[in-house]
Amino acid sequence: MWKAAVVVVALCSVAYAKDPPDTQAIKALIASEAAALEEGGDPTDAKVFTKTALSSAPDSDISGNEHGGLRGMISGYLLKVKPGKIAVGFARDGASAWVSFDATSTTACDSCEAAPGPPLRSSQLVVKVGTAWLVDTSIWTIGVVDARVNKDAKAGKQRALEAVVDADEGDASVRAALTALVTKGFDPALAKNKQLIGIGSAPKEIVAFTSLVPFFNKTWVGKLAIKGPVWARLAPSGTTAVAMANVSLTKTEGKATFVVQFRWFVVFDKDAAGAWQPVHVHFAVT
After folding, report:
1. Distance between CA atoms of residues 74 and 68, nearest Å
2. Does 210 fall in a domain?
3. Where are the alpha helices (DSSP H) in the chain?
4. 1 within a domain of the structure (yes/no)
């Protein structure tokens, strides 16, 4: 959905050997998470997830891994999840990080054999508990080509998104930061950070903030609105957080005006002045 923004990012390799120790540990964690979410795995594995870990997908609310997120979006059996290239960003506190990656899947059902499942993308907030990195909050989505999304939206046939939660929940300052991002856009200074990336709703849409921030501020600000409750969660440090909400974008093509619905997943980190700044965004329609 960010056609005018140049997609310039190649996620770093999944190979661990040259990564710093914490990056190695987080990449190994993602591999363990995939195994835990597969059929026969333990989606509550205490070596993978925090005790209060929550997950979401655009067509579900936020819930535990047993019922939501990746498991909730797959009909039938999820036999295999294979993460591809993984990007890791670290918070200023050193005890929180945001992770994003794509993945292939293999699925089956009671009356069908194993077959390739949908291509997946995920963004996650992971936190350090003692010496171990654990998954705290995640979103799993499937990229959809813009032409299909726009066609469905124009016809009023885009599938409605489930509310993230029943009512606003979580830290008020983080929810306010998300509202400010939707209504006012990014701090332009974030475009100078070459390490930050966003994931858009289309397949393989991974965009550096250097391109995303000016595109978003110029093209989308003033055309967005939060639809429904906003959910937020602080990392244990209190200086990193994640927020989720459904957001509508009003678009005009020719004489047609229509609305596209997105699920937003945004990781925030406090800057040196104590203000919440978005450091990773993931927008999806399914």
Report:
1. 10
2. yes
3. 21-37, 69-73, 146-154, 172-184, 209-219
4. no
For residue 107, the cross-strand partners are 78, 115
Q: Is residue 4 part of a domain?
A: no
Other CB atoms closer than 10 Å to residue 253's CB: what's the count? 9
Assign residue 100 the CATH number of its domain. Answer: 3.10.450.50
- pTM for this structure? 0.92
Contact partners, residue 222, CB within 8 Å, separation at least 6: none
Helices (H) and strands (E) in the chain, counts: 5, 12
Q: Band of the pLDDT at 63, cuts 50, 70, 90?
A: confident
Tell how strand 224-234 and strand 240-253 pair up. antiparallel
In a 3-state reduction of DSSP, which class is residue 169? strand
How many domains would you assign to the chain?
1
The CA-CA-CA angle for residues 256, 258, 262, to 5°, reads 150
